[in-house]
Amino acid sequence: VSGEQGAKAERMFALMDRFLKNDPISLQKDILDHVEYTVARSRFNFDDFEAYQALSHSVRDRLIERWHDTQLYFKRKDPKRVYFLSLEFLMGRSLSNSVINLGIRDQYADALGQLGFEYEVVAEQEGDAALGNGGLARLSACQMDSLATLDYPAWGYGLRYQYGLFRQVILDGFQHEQPDYWLNFGNPWEIERIHVTYPVKFYGTVEDETLNGGKYKVWIPGEMVEAVAYDNPIPGYGTRNTITLRLWAAKPSDQYDIESYNTGDYINAVVNRQKAETISSVLYPDDRSYQGKELRLKQQYFFVSASVQDIIRRFKDAHSNFDEFPEKVALQLNDTHPSLAIVEVMRILVDEEHLDWNRASDIVGKIFSFTSHTVIAEGLEKIPVDLLASLLPRHLQIIYSINFKFVEELKKKIGLDYNRLSRMSIIEEGAVKSIRSANLSIVCSHTVNGVSRVHLELLKANVFKDFYELWPEKFQFKTNGVTQRRWIVVSNPSLSALISKWLGTEAWIRDVELLTGLREYAADSFLQHEWKMVRKVNKMRLAEYIEAMSGLKVSLDAMFDVQIKRIHEYKRQLLNILGIIHRYDCIKNMEKSDRRKVVPHVCIIGGKAAPGYEVAKKIIKLCHAVAEKINNDSDVGDLLKLVFIPDYNVSVAELVIPGADLSQHLSTAGNEASGTGSMKFLMNGCLLLATEDGSTVEIIEEIGADNMFLFGSKVHDVPILREKGPDLKVNLQFARVVRMVRDGYFGFKDYFKSLCDTVEVGNDFYLLGSDFESYLEAQAAADKAFVDQEKWTQMSILSTAGSGRFSSDRTIQDYAENTWGIEPCPCPF
Ligand code: GL7
């Protein structure tokens, strides 16, 4: 930079004492300064939480330095950027992840120690940022970590909900939901950008305008809301690059409801203004169903509109010709939730930038890519036309135009096949006329991705069949992955250290394929011994948590057998519970002398049910009813325990996963698009008991079926079995355990009746009955393997060794190279 600006920059550099220092004294001083000036407590008297606040501000300062440098560098280099649009990001805690990625965890732990605090205790003070429901949202968070680590010029965009996913409270075994006002104690990980705001319009009318001889549409809004940016710096590991997750909050706009002021109704005018904020107030807690609610649609458009305006503003800062837009911008749609971004880009290009329609639509077709995360047709989002007509009248017109041109083109290609034309149309006719968000996304994106190989096959064969036949080249898959930084290094530091010791390097933290190097030591008795010790310590940590939470003491010799994920019929927690009942029943009916051969189990289940999902809530209650019976049966003792972990979230997962021996992934084949929980367990050396669904099919290729416990119908069997329906041979053991529940053996007979009905012959959509026998066989195989601890440990090492392919680094690199066309841009400062 030259001239006056350059001189100013030089003066600033001279004033700055270079970057913040990370030696123990500087860190201690820094923490104490934040205690005194940021938290405003006396440095002679502060508690663990205040220490956390001060520590996190000190870390934040270091993040900001890197973040500024990175952003400045991106601005100077002006590379093609990817913008990752997602309605949900499940970030969990930030502190530990940040200090590890910045490479200063140990220094901070020492500094805190010198001040009389314990790092682990202080880090525990942080609450979770739970701005998402489940796998899809956590995937976004993992992908942000990989984007930063791999130095990609990327931005995440989402919504800053004031209330994240509800807190689950269990009373008498029933789930209750409580609001998660996560911002109560402040959030040091975000930076409010009061100057980065955009107006977002709703309602109103569309009028024609003539300007310089051209005819344009003008949208006169009925309501305006202001979007304010909150930036969350995301540090990469082993790099200075620190990228931005920009979340939007809704604030009343000065132009909001001017009418009420003019009519003198001041109080109501103020109350109305506050309504604007409700747009970003609460996360919808359903993870796989869509109800066409106005607020949800407002949320989607709100974050999409602000993001698109921001992206176009950044482009225009450096460019004047929109033909260059596709060379500088890639927009990724994380599921269909942000699909209105397509329409918003069209609207701005055509109505505001006055590009002609074809040119705008050509640009749109080059910048958007879409990833689907669902398998079933019912999971596809639809927007009622009436709702859209009132909320976003101009967008509806644009969608009609896009569809008209698409259908006209289609007719030329496939002729007048009206069935097919109507299936492929973006508009669904019928009782409730609606917009099919997936069709809109496919038509306007250059690439459609599935999240595992099986998922893509299912999309091609079912929900997106017509589109696949039309544009086979558009369809790809990128198997999901998770970040080893959070899921090994942060959550399992002792395993992480052990891996580095045996591989002789920490390079696997960035280059995860190196984990395969563990294979050659899998049978080494020294490694096995150390591996077992690490796993035991993690089990102890988990056992302590269980005891603190429920008062239940569990034996460390038992197999810790875990199923943690959202509660869904298709994920079949019910199959797990019925299996546990079977195990209990067997133990009870066994000769005492035979009990010595039983492998003790601590069965751990955790997960939230969507508040309106009755069957899922009954499954939670059943789990508690069965636990009550088993855990109080002294006759069974340590042979079997069942624990439900309440309020499952990212930080609970970080504790549970490293302590699990076995984890269960029981989805009826063909229902789990990918599944990512299994990858986290795998990285931590936990063995999998699973159906051949979603990403498991690819896990088998890496680990080998011998090192897993597989069971159940295969993807292609499922439709046939469903078709056969009532002819199914009833499994007697299955019928017996269901009967026990039905007969009130665990109490609540009437309450569980409808739950039992869901698995009766003829009604058993998720095929619990037909998979039960094979499920028990897999359980027996796991028990048998567990007895031979040497073999088990070897399988455990091989699981970690084979987990490299399931890193989000691999997924992101694939997206960057094959979908977005972006390149790393490492900040050299
Ligand atoms: C999901 C899929 O159900 C899950 O299998 C997948 O791993 C995840 C990430 O791709 O996306 N789709 C979805 O709507 N939710 C998911 O977790 C909530």
UniProtKB/TrEMBL annotation:
Keywords: Allosteric enzyme, Carbohydrate metabolism, Glycosyltransferase, Pyridoxal phosphate, Transferase
Keyword presence, Glycosyltransferase: yes
Reaction(s) the record says it catalyses: [(1->4)-alpha-D-glucosyl](n) + phosphate = [(1->4)-alpha-D-glucosyl](n-1) + alpha-D-glucose 1-phosphate
Nucleotide-binding is among the record's keywords: no
EC number: 2.4.1.1
GO molecular function, one term: glycogen phosphorylase activity
GO cellular component entries: cytoplasm
One Gene Ontology term from the biological process aspect of the record: glycogen catabolic process
Cofactor(s) the record lists: pyridoxal 5'-phosphate
Family that this chain belongs to: Belongs to the glycogen phosphorylase family.
Task of the protein: Allosteric enzyme that catalyzes the rate-limiting step in glycogen catabolism, the phosphorolytic cleavage of glycogen to produce glucose-1-phosphate, and plays a central role in maintaining cellular and organismal glucose homeostasis.
Protein name: Alpha-1,4 glucan phosphorylase
Residues of the full protein shown: 176 to 1004 of 1004
